[in-house]
Fold:
Amino acid sequence: MQMKRFDTINVIPLIDVMLVLLAIVLTTASFIVKDNLQIDLPETQNTQTYVPPKDKPPMTFNIDGQNQLFLDETPFEYAALSQKLSPLDKDQPIVIQVDKKAQFEYFVKLIDALKAHELNNLSILTKAE
Structure:
């Protein structure tokens, strides 16, 4: 008995499998949340949806419930804040997230440092009630 010789390979089933795998990856990737800090934002009634600018990625400052400052989820000291802010452009978008258990003093320190460097393009994130 002689086997039939294949001159071509049918790639359509391979493409189907790859599309299913791509759909699974994209679906599960949308559920992965970057927020590792577990910041509990204060609730507000008059909140607008934050849309990050497309031209320049924002810098994100977080203050957790223990008053620790984070820059893009990396622990950061308040003393080094001025050094980090001085080379920034005046129109640099900045996002601030503050845990509702954080002391107001630390939020004021952050805002004061931003204002000292004339960084006024601020967005303070809250969660809608």
